[in-house]
Each structure stands twice: as C-alpha cells, then as structure tokens.
Amino acid sequence: MAKYFKNTSSKVGLPPGSIRYVGKTREEPLRICVFEYSEDHLEEYTNITVEEALSYHRQGSFLWINMDGVHHVDAVQQICTHFGIHPLTIEDILSTEQRPKLEDSETYIYMVLKMLEFDPIKGNVTAEQISMILGENFVISFQERPGDTFEQVRNRLRQGKGRIRKSGADYLMYTLIDTIIDYYYVILENFGDKLETIEEDLLVDASSRTLTSLYNLKREMVSVRRSIWPLREVINRLERDELKLIKKETRIFLRDVYDHTIQVIDTVETYRDVLSSMVDLYQSTIGNKMNAVMKVLTIISTIFIPLTFVAGLYGMNFEYMPELNWRYGYFTVLGIMFLMSLMMIYLFKKKKWL
Amino acid sequence: MAKYFKNTSSKVGLPPGSIRYVGKTREEPLRICVFEYSEDHLEEYTNITVEEALSYHRQGSFLWINMDGVHHVDAVQQICTHFGIHPLTIEDILSTEQRPKLEDSETYIYMVLKMLEFDPIKGNVTAEQISMILGENFVISFQERPGDTFEQVRNRLRQGKGRIRKSGADYLMYTLIDTIIDYYYVILENFGDKLETIEEDLLVDASSRTLTSLYNLKREMVSVRRSIWPLREVINRLERDELKLIKKETRIFLRDVYDHTIQVIDTVETYRDVLSSMVDLYQSTIGNKMNAVMKVLTIISTIFIPLTFVAGLYGMNFEYMPELNWRYGYFTVLGIMFLMSLMMIYLFKKKKWL
Amino acid sequence: MAKYFKNTSSKVGLPPGSIRYVGKTREEPLRICVFEYSEDHLEEYTNITVEEALSYHRQGSFLWINMDGVHHVDAVQQICTHFGIHPLTIEDILSTEQRPKLEDSETYIYMVLKMLEFDPIKGNVTAEQISMILGENFVISFQERPGDTFEQVRNRLRQGKGRIRKSGADYLMYTLIDTIIDYYYVILENFGDKLETIEEDLLVDASSRTLTSLYNLKREMVSVRRSIWPLREVINRLERDELKLIKKETRIFLRDVYDHTIQVIDTVETYRDVLSSMVDLYQSTIGNKMNAVMKVLTIISTIFIPLTFVAGLYGMNFEYMPELNWRYGYFTVLGIMFLMSLMMIYLFKKKKWL
Amino acid sequence: MAKYFKNTSSKVGLPPGSIRYVGKTREEPLRICVFEYSEDHLEEYTNITVEEALSYHRQGSFLWINMDGVHHVDAVQQICTHFGIHPLTIEDILSTEQRPKLEDSETYIYMVLKMLEFDPIKGNVTAEQISMILGENFVISFQERPGDTFEQVRNRLRQGKGRIRKSGADYLMYTLIDTIIDYYYVILENFGDKLETIEEDLLVDASSRTLTSLYNLKREMVSVRRSIWPLREVINRLERDELKLIKKETRIFLRDVYDHTIQVIDTVETYRDVLSSMVDLYQSTIGNKMNAVMKVLTIISTIFIPLTFVAGLYGMNFEYMPELNWRYGYFTVLGIMFLMSLMMIYLFKKKKWL
Amino acid sequence: MAKYFKNTSSKVGLPPGSIRYVGKTREEPLRICVFEYSEDHLEEYTNITVEEALSYHRQGSFLWINMDGVHHVDAVQQICTHFGIHPLTIEDILSTEQRPKLEDSETYIYMVLKMLEFDPIKGNVTAEQISMILGENFVISFQERPGDTFEQVRNRLRQGKGRIRKSGADYLMYTLIDTIIDYYYVILENFGDKLETIEEDLLVDASSRTLTSLYNLKREMVSVRRSIWPLREVINRLERDELKLIKKETRIFLRDVYDHTIQVIDTVETYRDVLSSMVDLYQSTIGNKMNAVMKVLTIISTIFIPLTFVAGLYGMNFEYMPELNWRYGYFTVLGIMFLMSLMMIYLFKKKKWL
Fold first, then answer.
1. What is the average per-residue pLDDT within C123-135?
2. Residue B329 structural domain
3. What count of Cα atoms within 13 Å lies in the side-chain half-sphere of residue B126?
4. Per the domain annotation, does E319 fall within a domain?
5. CB 3.0-4.6 Å disulfide test: which of C254, C305, D9, E273 passes with D304?
C-alpha cells in the first residue's frame, strides 16, 4: 500500500532554492535520452552525459531531453542552469512529493504531473512525479526512474508521420501529457475490474477478506484522486491562459486533453460513490449474517431448552412422583414434548424465521 | 448491472485524432436513414449507403442523417469528412464512453448526449451515446445501435404539421434533444416505482433481497446521475451562449428543455436523498430485528435455565438428600418452579420485553 | 406518504407547447372566481364561465381571476389565449409537477409556486401547484383543486382597507405569495411538534414505530424541501431584477417575503440536521438495548450453566462415586454452588454489569 | 431543551406591517431605560414611560433607549413612530423568531441579533432576540426580557472614560454588538467543558446517559449555530458596505468584531466536527462492549455445555452401560472433562479471547 | 489532548483595545533577542531589556526583535507603542486563541500564525501562536514561550551567506514563515507514522485501544486543520495583494510558500479521508468479530443442546421405558447422537460456518 508521506521533512530550515533531493531513496543510475529533430531530420541519442545532451541544443531544431533519476542532483542542476531555470523551480524538480501544478515564467513553462503506473507484481498502483519544462524550442522531462508511457511518442517521432515533427515543442509537450493522462484510463479500468470482483463478493458472500480489499481499494482511490484532482486546474490554465509559449493550433488539442481529464475525474468520483455504497452494503450484510446466525441459535435453543427442562423434571429422584409410575407416563411425556416442538416450529414459521 | 468501464484503454498512446472505435464490442449492421425536407416537401430514405446519403445534401432544403452503429468507423469518417468535421471531433464520435458535452466550432456545433433506455427484459437501464452535429442546414445524429426515442419526431416530420418543417436545422436538433430528455421522465418514473416497492418492503419486512434491490438501485442511480449532471451545463450553454447556428426563436424552446433538465436533476437528487434515508432505515431495521431475536432467546433461556438447574439438583444421586423423601417434595419443587417462572415473566413485562 | 412521481411521462414525444394536462388524475369541477376592483369599487363573481370572467377585463380597474382545476384544459387555454400567453407557458401551467420558477416575458410575469397544505385526516402534508400570471392590470391564479390560503386576501379586498385596493396588480400578487409562504410556518410548526414527539420517544423508549415515524418525517422533509429551496431564487429575482411590472413601492414588501423564505429554508435545514442526529441517536439506542438484553442473557447463563453442570455431575450413575455416600455430600455441593454464584455476582458487579 | 418553533403561525394571512407580537408568551413588565449623553455630560433615567423617554430626544446629544419586553406592542409602536420607523421594520421588531439580519433604510440602520445566555439553573443556553436601530444621533435597543450583557457598557458610559462618549451613536452600537458577541465566548467555553466531560466518559465508560448528553449537546449546537452563522454576513456588511451612518473610524472596530465572529463560527464548526467523531466513537464503543459481553457468554457456554452433555450421558438409566461399572469410571470421566476444559481454554487463549 | 477553549471569556465586556493577556496561564520569564544587521554587519543581543532592544532601532540597518512570553503585557505594549502599533493590534497580539490572519495597516503588516510543535514526551502536537509585525526596516515576532523553529534562520543570518542579509525585512519575514510551514511537514510525517501503525492494527487485530488511538488522532487532526486552513487565504493575500511593504522580488518566494501551504492542506484533507475510511473499517471489523464469536457459540450450542436433551430423555426415571432395558439401547443412543453431530457439522460446512 502507498506510504503516507516520505522524508519531506529533511528540507526543513534550509534556505529557499536549496539543491537537495526530497523523496524515496533511490539507487537507479542516471539515464539521459535526447531527441533532436526538425520536420525533415531526427537524431536520437541514448545514455549520454549531461554535457553531450546540452551540446545538441541549437538554433533551428527542436530538442527533447528526457532524464530518468532526479535523485542525481548535480545532473538536474547542470541541465537547469544551462537553460536558465530559476533555483526555486530546480528545488521543485528535486522534490518528488508535490501536487500537480503549472508555473509560467517569462521564458519557460514548468509543469508537475503524476504518472500513474500499475505494478502487476504487487498488484497496486504507483505514482511517479514527472516534471516538464517547455521552452522556445525545447522540452525537458524529468522522471524519478526508468520506465514510462512515452514509448509511442518516441515511435511517432522516429516515423516522422503526422504533425509531431512539424508542430514545435509545445505540441511535443502536449503529446507527452496526453499519453500520461491516457494511461489513467488503464489504471481506472483496472480499478473497475477490482470493483466488479468486490461487488460480486459482496452480493454473494462477504468475507473479512472482502473488507480488506474494499479498504485497500478505497485507500488507493484516495491517493489516485490526490494525483488527479489538481490536474483539472493545471490543464485548464494551459488551455485558457494566454501563455506565450503555447501556440493557438496546439490549444485545440489541449482542450481535448482537458475533456479527458474531466472524464477521468468524473470516473474517480463515481467510483468513490460506488465504494461508499459498498461499505454501506457490507455493513448491512454483516448485520444480516449476524441475524441469520442468531436465528439458528435462537430456534435451536428455544425448541430444546424447554424440552431438556421437562426431561430433567422427570429425572428428579423424589420418592413420591406419581407420573413416574403411570403405565404410559413415558409416552405421554414424549407426546407432550412432540407437541411443544410442533408449536414452537409453528410460531417460528409465523414469525418467518423458518 | 452497468459495467464500470469499457475498453477505453485501447486508444492509449495513439496520436490525437486517431480513427478508432472505443466502446463495447458491437455486431449491429450499419443503418443510415435520411430525411431531406423543406417547408413543403419531404423525402425519406432508409437503409441507404453513405454515398447515397451524402448526395442528398443540397442547397435550399434541410437534411437529417441518422446513423445507427458508430463502430462502423469508415462510414463515420466518410460522413464527417464530407461535412468538414475536425478529426478530434471524429475521435469523440467514435468514443462511446464520454460525458455529455458541447463544442462550438466555427461551422458546426458538436454535442454528446446520453440516451437512456429501459430494458424491460433485464429490468435495468442502459445508456447509449448520441452524438449530434448541427450545421447550417443539416443535422447528423450518430447512435450506437438501432432503436431510439426519435420515432415521434419522424412522424411529425412526415405529417409536416406545426413548426418542425419550417423552423430549420436548429429547431430539428432541439426536438431531438427534447425527446431524449423527455424520455428521462419515463426512466425516473420507473425508478420511482422501484423506490416505492423497496419502501414498502422496508416498512413491512426487510429481507436481504431488499438490500440487494436497494444497492442495485443506488448503483443505477449513480450511473444515471453521471449521464444527466453534465447536461445542465451543456443545455445552459446552448441556450445562453450566443451561438451563431442557434436562432433566437429556437432559444425560447431550449429554455424549456433547460427547465426539464433541472427538474430531472432535481428528481435524481431527491431520489438519492431518499435512497440514503432508506439505507439508514434498513440498518436500523436489522438492529431492531436482531433485538427481537435476542429477546426471544433471552426470555426462553432466562426462564428455563434456572428451572433446569433446579430439576438437575434433585436429579443428583446423593445418598442423603432429605427433600427427596418428603411426602410433597415433588409438588413443592413444582410449585417453586412455577413461582420462579411467574416472577421472570413479571420482570420481563416490567422491562416491556413481553 | 407523497408519491414519488406522477404520470409525467405521458407527454413524451409530443411537440412543444402541446396542450395536455400532466399530473394526478382529478375529478374536481371547474371553478372560476373573479374580483374586479379599483380603489373605490369592488365586484366579486363566483362560479362563472370563462367567457363571463374574460368580459370583466377592462381598462381602469384591476382584475383577479382565480381558477380551481387546471385539468380543465380548454378553460386554461381560453383564458391564456385571451391574455396573449405563450403556448410554452400554457404547457407549464398544465404540468403540475414543476419546480417553483419565474419567467419574465415582455408583457407578463409567469410564476410557479407550491402551496403546501396540512391534511389533518391523513396527518401528512400535500403540495399543490399554483401558477400565477401578472399582467399590467390583472392577476390570474391557477390552482389544482378548490381550497386555498387566499381567504384573508379576499376579505381584505372586500373590506377595502389598507393598501390592497390602491396598489395595483403587482401588490395583489405579492399578497398572494405572502399568504402561501406564511402558511409554510404552519407546516413547519406541525413538523416541529412531530419532531418533539419523536425526540421524547427516542429519549424514553425507542420502538420500531418511532423508527417509522422518523423515516416518514424525513421523507416528508425531503419533499417539502424540494418545494421550498427553488423559491429562494424565485423570490430573489422578483425583488432584485428590474422587472418592468413590479413597482418600486412593492419591492420593499417582496424583500420582506424574501426574508421569510430564507427563514423557512433555514428552519427546514435545521430540522434536517436534527433529524439526522435523531437517526444516529436511534441507532445507538438500539445498540444500547441489545447490550442490555445480552447482559441479562449472559448473566443468567454464566451463573446457571456451571451450576447445572455440577448438578449433572452428581446425577451420573457410576457405581463408584465416593462423594455420593458422604454424610454431608449434598450440603457440601449446595454450599459450593452458593459460593460459585456469589463469586459470579461479584465479578459482574466489578464489571458494572449489575 | 430549546423548543423547535414558537407560535409564528398566528400571523398567517395578516396584511404586511401588521402590529402583532409573535413569539413566546411573556409576562414581564415593560421597562425603559434611557441614557442621554454627550462628551461632557450624561443623564440616566430608568423605569420611565415611553413619553418621558421620547422627550429626551434632542439636538446636540446622543440618546440610547433600551426597552425590555417587546411584547408590549403599543410601546414599541409609539417609539418607532416617533423615530419614523417603517411599519415592516416594526413588524420585524415584534417577531422574535427571526434570523440575524441587517437592513439599511435611508435614515436608519435596523439590525437583528441573537443574545445567547447560559441559564445556570436548567443548565442550557437560551437565545433572546435583540433588535437595534441606529439613527443619526440615537440607538434604540429592544429586548425580549430584562437581563442582558450590556452592564459594562453602561458603566463605561457612566465613567465617561475612553472613546465611548465622544464617538457618536455608531460607536455605541458597535460596543453593544461587541458585548453580545464577546458573550458567545462564555457560551462556547461552557460547551467546551461539556465536551470534555463527555469525552472522558466516552473513553472511560460510555453509558446511555452519555448518549443523552451527547445528543443534547448536539441539539444545542444546532440552535447556537443557527443564531451565529447569519451573523457573519451581517457584520461583514456593517463593515464593508459604505453605510452612511457608520463613520470611518468605527469601521476598524467593526473589523475586530468581524474577526471575533469568524473565530466563534470556526469554533462552533470545530465542535460539530468533534461531536460527530464522538458519535462514531460511541457507536464503536457499544460494539466493543457487546463483543466483550458475547465473549463471556460464549466462553462459559462453550466450556460447560459439552461437559454438561457428558454428565447427562452418564446420568442415563440404561440397564447395560459398561462404563458405569468400571472401578475408575467416575474418575476417568472427571479427567476427560478436565482435559476438555483445558483444551477449550487453550483454544480461547489462541484466539486471544482470554 | 488539546483542551477545547482557554479562558477567552475573561475579556468579556472590556472596552476595545483593552491591554489584557488572554490564554493559558504561563510562568515563563520574558526573553528578548535582537538581530540588527545590514548586508555587511550583524549584531546579536540576547536576554536584553525592552529599552535596550528599542535603542537598536535605527536608520540604515534592519532590526529583528523576537520576544518570548506574550503574557508579559507591559513589554508587549512598550514595544508596540514605540513602533506605532494600533491598540486593536496589541489586543490581538495578547490574545493567543486567534485564527491565522493578516492585517495590512498603512505602516505595517500584522500577521498571526500557529507554530505547531511535536511534544515527544506527551506524544502529541501543541500549537503556539506567533504574531509578526513587518515594518519598513524591522520585523517583530511575538511567541508564547521559548523554543521555536527559527534556529536555522538565526544561523543563516550569522553566516551572512545567500540573500538573507541583503534582501530586507520582508525577506526575513518570509524565511520565518517558511520555517514554520516547513515544520508542518515534520508534524504530518509524524501523523503519517501514526496512521500506518493504526492501519496495521486495524488490518491485523483491532482492539479497543486502537479505537482510542484512532479517536485521538482524529481529534488532533481537527485542531491541526483549524490552525492550517486559514493560512491558505493569509499566504495568498501576502502574495497576491499589492502590499506596499512586500517587494516584488520577495513575492516569488511567497508563491513557493503558498504551494507548500496548499500541499500541507491537501495532505491534511487526505489524512481526514483516510481516517474516516478507518472508522468505517473499524466498525465493520467489530461486526465481523461479533459474527465470529456468535458462530462459535451457535455451533457449540446447536450441536450439544439437542444431544443433552437426548441424554436427559434417557435419564428420566419412568418405570416403564422400554428402550432402557434393550441390550444395545445405550450404544444405539450413542450412535444416534454421533449421527446427529455429523449432520449438524455437515450443515455448518454447507453454510460455510466451519
């Protein structure tokens, strides 16, 4: 299950713009990939040094630097210094526990997103922070670790079909955001499957394992929701604000991303609604089961306790108990017991307990 | 019960404007119907090809193309290309898991609605996505499958009475929206009936079947609500925004539709309120039933357990037990037992358990 | 209890402005009353025909037509046509399941209100829809059935004291609204009484009958709230908007009505709050009762079951059981049983169960 | 406990501005006190007639008329007529069931507040309506009954120190409002004490008496909240609106009162939050207690019922039961019983029930 | 646990601007520290008198006076009078039960914050009120008691590196606010740890001690939330409003603080969400446990009560009971009992109770 809060407190008391990594301890090596492209050419470099990456920043072509491993503080700083990024922004890139946000400086747009990934081994969802910087003719994306949803963007760049190479850095950033948000659908479908499983369990046979699943799903929902809600405002500003770096042609695509974001949020809210109905259902089901158990106990006890008393009565050793000497005493008592049981069963039938 | 989320993830990573159907797998054949009309003439064509349909698009008359089966991707694309629809809009038409929305382009208005239908066999409500495009002199409506609420609109067109043939494409779109929203009343009446059934069950005898009905209704409400809420904004924009394609005369009718939408939403909210009261009632009812069961058990046990003990006492085989030899020992014990029962019953009466 | 939704679906698919009654089936005869008055004269006509009523509409005096029975579709239409009312407004007058609303046309103001009445026989609250049309020098009020809260307005008109005859049609409409809203206080007082009864029950002895009352009150509250909430906006618009037909002198009185509306809504919200506290209280009370029942059972069982076991022990028929032959075996066992009971009672006292 | 709604319905159907007292029936005599003051002189008159009071209204000095007993309708009317108060305002002064509100007429400001008082005998909080009218050089305060929070204002007036005599009628009204709101702190401290008592009860031993206290506190909170919420808007308007009768120097003090109001509201909301947590805690505590009771019952039953069965077994009177004749049959059975008990206890220990 | 409300009522009825300490009774001595600095020099004075402190207020250098112990009313007043602080602001400084707020006077900005500290001995969080006044070239900070989060600011001042000495009084105030808010992360991490502990307890074994922890955490959350929520608006105004005393260069840093505040609030809301899920989980867990207990009781009772009855039957002392004399009567009965048990166990298996 997602931890509640990572070592964010280590930064307390440092001056603003302090260059220190805040987040989960990580061991992954630094990995830098660069795409330098224009409408009619494309160069792709993988696993290069920071210096090499920066050397490809030139007039007349677009540059996309993707860096995995923001805990490599020096590399982050070196890149940012080259592109004239404000120290407070660098501090933000290094803090991996942020909410999605958008900052518009004079010369670049800084954006924080959460890339959600489904971990098929643990069976849960992990969130990774993606920082993106959009400049005049470059996009820089910082990831916490290797592995992302960008592979199809890379393929589209390599093939050079469609708009992607012609439409500038802002369009590239749009496609990156788009793949991140499209992947939320995969996450939500997975949640939907879990919801259906739990629902079936609830309607058929709710065990305490179902309760744990329900609770875990609710908890995952809380953290997914936290990653997604602020996105609404971020994407909306990207589309609405008259940001200098976003071209008018790109805005119509951002509108589309905004619609997707709304739909994702809407689905999350619906799921929350359903989950809270399920909790109600679970509690009522427990009550119903308890009722069923109690009824069995009550029926058995109510039938046999009086009978046992009667049997006990004639098990007493008094010297003078006239019934004991009757010829049909035993059978009379058996008969009475039988009638008592019938009466009880009739009463329970009338109460609809049987 | 409505599934949570259909295969929306298949589109992940595709470039924007990708022409791919997203939604439930469907087998229904393509079905295109065309109404070409002006104030004094009307031509109706059913089951024609796309090419034929497009050939009826001409100056001086209004055209309504209705297409069933948006999973026929090529047909959708062919129609849209003819009318100059933007690729992102085509992508939206093909995605059947969208929220109701309105988009105003320069040359057309694109609108997504949910047509709710009551399935009398399964006894539940299904939602079908209707996309509508309003142009200068045409309306195109895309449905997921045959079967709709438009039959009376067709009849009115055929009869040519009233305003419908005189008032242009925007008025036709209004009537289509109007029938969809009017049909929500049928759905809500059906829900109202179910609510009443459940309410009676709850007040008379709440079984665990009632709980399942309650939960299913709540779940259906969640999904109906999701189809209806965004409509408020959509219809409001249609009425308020100064959309070029909506004539001023049509706006007063849209105001009427808006009032209906508000009333539908209001009813849905009221139902939700009532449903949550019912859940409370159900839980309290379970508690009350348990109390009743427990009281029976407690009364029987509390009366007979001490009596059984007394009987057991005189069933002991001690050699020297003076009472056993008393002449009226047995009857004295019977008397004591009788008095004990009376006392217990009196106590229960005082506690109001009997 | 209020039904959830009446046959509103019968209108589905009809063209807009269709002249058809929507609502509960009614048998009441048509009843038209007219007051024609100016500052110094008054004519009152009851049970007249539509034609007669319309003939009193003349320059220089004010006219109030009150009609009971909106299911008399022809009469409604005849009156409306005379005064130039739009077909969509006529449709609204005939639909008795609407939310309170206000519509301002060029020549008249159309208003829908809910008149709440307490039915002393069934002991519940019924809502009746009142439509009012305010024109230059006339007010028309449409009711669903005879019986209303307007009697004192009629008396004031007859007596001709105060402002009522001098202040024009808008002031007359204000007084009609005012009496409707004043009557809400009667309804709320009645609810307050019921709340107090339930509260006393809850604090003294909560039966399952209390639960039913609680639920019924909650349900009535839901429907009253639904009638009252939209009023806030309606009255506010009447007071704030610069409506041509409302004189400035009348506005200060509407401000007063607005204050009353706010107070009524505020009271309804407070009641809802109290009701939801009561549901919590009820559920906790059930729990407490169950605890009490269980304690009795547990105490009795825990004391007697071990004693019964001991008695059973010495009821065994083994040949060699030395205790059985002891001189004071019986009394020793009785003593041990007595001590066991004392110990149990002491333990229960310590646990505060006794 | 506060009653839900007092006889407000008696006014139904009366013309607007009707001079009739609405509220609890009261017997208190009329009591009028007047302070006539300027910077360097002060006259105080107590228990005078309305005529006398009005005679002190003169140019060049400030006048504060305080009247206890708004059910003395004639006196209220006489005073109001003298100062030119609108009939609707008089109606409002006489209605003691209003929400706090502010009305700005051309020549005076009318304000309704709720003075909360703690009744140490009944141990609850009562609300009294205070109406205040601020004119050019006078303040009139109407109370429901004698006894108020104004004594220290009177002392400050008598001593003539500080700003109070120099700063005009608006400053006097500010001080009156200030003492009323300051007294809310006393009420909230009292609530805080009650909350702490209940909290300790809950964490130590929750009885059903605790439940009643909890519910009563919640109910008192609902009614206090109702008195306080609307105040926010009232005080805010007093501070923000450019009201002619409020001097700029007084506004900074009203800002201070506004902060206090916000703090009071904030505390009330926090208390509500805490109360709802307490209800959850109470319900869980009941559940826990029930569990404890049930465990005792189950442990005792599970240990002794099988033993009793075994004892019963050897109490049977069959002729041929070989064990009965064994030499150590009795002791073997005793041993088996002992082992059974040990095993049960071991199982309970493993389940952590013991 | 945090007390609900401290003796705030002592101020009731005092004139505005009354110089009186409101809050917890405190014994801490007065402690004043002064930093007088400019870009190239720094003087630090600790434990000096008010007069000395004020003597360092001179042109051309910046002054930071930090005072611990606001219950030393005279010292507060003396300092404030020197800097021309309004009496109402002094009153606010002396009231330690305020909400965070910002006031902008012509010559200074007054700000109230809550410094949260984790008390490792009691294991809970305490809030201390910090008042700050920012003037042209000075900052005054008032604390309730010694001990704060400012040590690293002092070190940065002493070392003179970075912006801190060059950037004026507004930047100093920013760093003070920044350390306070950064410390919230420490508090939230501590809460996160507690949440995880409780969560594990809940999923493994929920005792009533878990319930108490859960409740206490909820209560602490309520009070932390109360300290943090109003901050959003305060910091936002500091950043957005065109306050004369805040330089444009400082504003970008305040934007950063604002982001932190939002993140802290967001985390608090998430925790609340999780806590309320936990309460649901706890209640369901109790229900499940009860079910488990009841099942054990029911299984044991249902198996043995009928058997005991059969045993009792043949323990009766009737003279004529044919079965008793059968040769294999005893073994037949034993066999029947065995079969009865098997049947019961089979039934329980089928019901999935075993």
1. 90
2. 287-350
3. 13
4. yes
5. C305
